[in-house]
Design goal:
Radius of gyration: 13 Å
Largest sheet: 7 strands, mixed
Helix content: under 10%
Strand order of the largest sheet: 2-1-7-6-5-3-4
Amino acid sequence: MGNINADVLSVSGGLKNYTEVDMVRIKSEKYTLLIMRDYMPVIGEVRGDVDLVIGDETCRFGDIQGYFTHTDNHFTLLINEVWDVK
């Protein structure tokens, strides 16, 4: 069923690629969104949780701040991390 490809990019975790994603759940401060195959193109900001559902497994990115896009069954998440450099 999963025909969504997902890329997640963060400074600490680098670039991670996920294939055969069934759905993406986004729970942000202001909204909740469920993205499935052939979902309309969307771009947004998230302050909350993002779950990538792949079969019986869920890959959770919890309590994050970032930005996402979804177009042509490709989901991209950019996680914003604050670094305290001295």
